Amino acid sequence: MVGELDLATSPVLIDTMSPVAAQDGDIDLDLAELTFIDSSGIRALLVLAEELGGHGHLILARPPESVLRTLRLIGIEQAENIQIST
What is the value of pTM for the model shown? Predict the structure, then answer.
């Protein structure tokens, strides 16, 4: 992902990734170039994880420090099938 994951871009992420989430297997999102995430972006990640259900994990790979801090602050790893890979 490149740029910001916010109110304007989170629907695009959900629309793009929902068909992938309906299949078995993990989703690996490379966040290395993500510069900002807000509550809408976090909600989009949680929606994708929910759509994966028990048949895969949402792996948030290489988030920049500012994004990582936000993800950890809200406790996103408490979701059963979300993992952060640094």
Answer: 0.94
Q: What are phi and psi of 26, to 5 degrees?
A: -80, 155
- For residue range 19-63, what is the model confidence (pLDDT) as tens digits? 999 999 999 999 999 999 999 999 999 999 999 988 999 999 999
Specify the number of domains making up the chain. 1
- CATH number where 17 lies: 3.30.750.24
Residues in the chain: 86
Q: Which of 66, 23, 61, 65 is nearest to 45 (CA)?
A: 61
- Short-list 43, 57, 52, CA closest to 10: 43
Domain containing 74 equals 2-85
Beta-bridged to residue 2, according to DSSP, are 33
Q: What does the alpha-carbon distance between residue 50 and residue 23 come to, in Å, rounded to a whole number?
A: 13
